[in-house]
Structures are given as structure tokens and as C-alpha cells.
Amino acid sequence: MKTYPQSVLDMFESGNVKYAYLLSIEFDQITVRYTNAGFTVNYNGNDYIDSPQLNGISELSRNANMTVTELQVNLSLANNPAANAVYLSSIYNTPVNVERVFLDENNQSIHSENVWKGKVASYADSDEDLLLTLNVSNIWADFDSSNPWRTTPSSHKRRFADDNCFKFAAKASEVVYWGENPTLTDSGDR
Question: In this structure, is residue 150 part of a structural domain?
Fold first, then answer.
């Protein structure tokens, strides 16, 4: 259940609801922040700029099901710190966050709520349009992907050198009957 401060509830009752979306992309060296407000919004000490560098975001969709949703973020490649960050850092799994912030009559933020959260799954750039498109998937995309992890002792040792996970694996194949003491030798009275 969502809880809102009284100032936001008053906004809802009056029908004059003023809000903006805040987009943040957390690259390795820099976090870029944009808004659709038409002016710079300061939230939690960070400035979210209204910039022509953000060419658009695909329609946001949320549902209660555990399904993969994707978001496309289009950024201009012309003189854009986000474009530089893409080429200077590892782009895959870069966190992307979209929040809705409610604004008072002085355009000060009074409340925010997380609208969408995900990670960059792929990207494409267009030299003709000078456009960078980030394809962002929510957290459920991790559950849809195939797991290339091999379950062999040698592959596990590469990831966790001190772990001996298969030490007792052979015991798992032994049959233990209900009521039997597995520490005693088989007496042959089954």
C-alpha cells in the first residue's frame, strides 16, 4: 500500500497534481541524471537536468506479475557526457532508475516514489541520427536468462577457490530408508 504525505494527498484532492519523472543512469565513472520537468529539478542533493540530450524514453509499464519488462532510453550522441561514459565504461548491467517526484507550487520536490528499476541489457548507436539507444530490462530478466554455470568441481573452484562444495555429493546418491540409522552398516534385514 502506498503512503503519501498530506501535501501530496491535498494535491490529489484538488486535482492539480504536479509531478516529474527523474531518470538516473549509473555508469562506472559518472551518474547522469535527466528529468522531463522542463526545468532542472534538485532531489536529494542531485540536479536532474532537462536536456535535449535525452531524446526520449519508451512507455513505462508496471504490473504485479513477475514478468520481464523493457525500457528504451534514447540519448543524443552529440556532446553528451552519457555517450562518453558508455564508451569509457562497461555498459552492460549498468543500473537505471526512474522515479516520480511530486512538486509543490515552487517546483520543490515534496515526495518521490520509485517507478521503474533495471539494468542495461544491450545498446545500439546510430551514426546517422547521432542517437544512442539503451535497452534496459527489469530485475526479472535475470531469471529468464540461461545460466552458463557448469556444476563441476573444477568450474566451481575457478569461482570459489576455497569452497569444496562437492565433498559430500556422493552421499546424496545413497538410499536411506525411513527409520533406518544411516550410521550403522547394512544388516540385511530390510
Answer: no
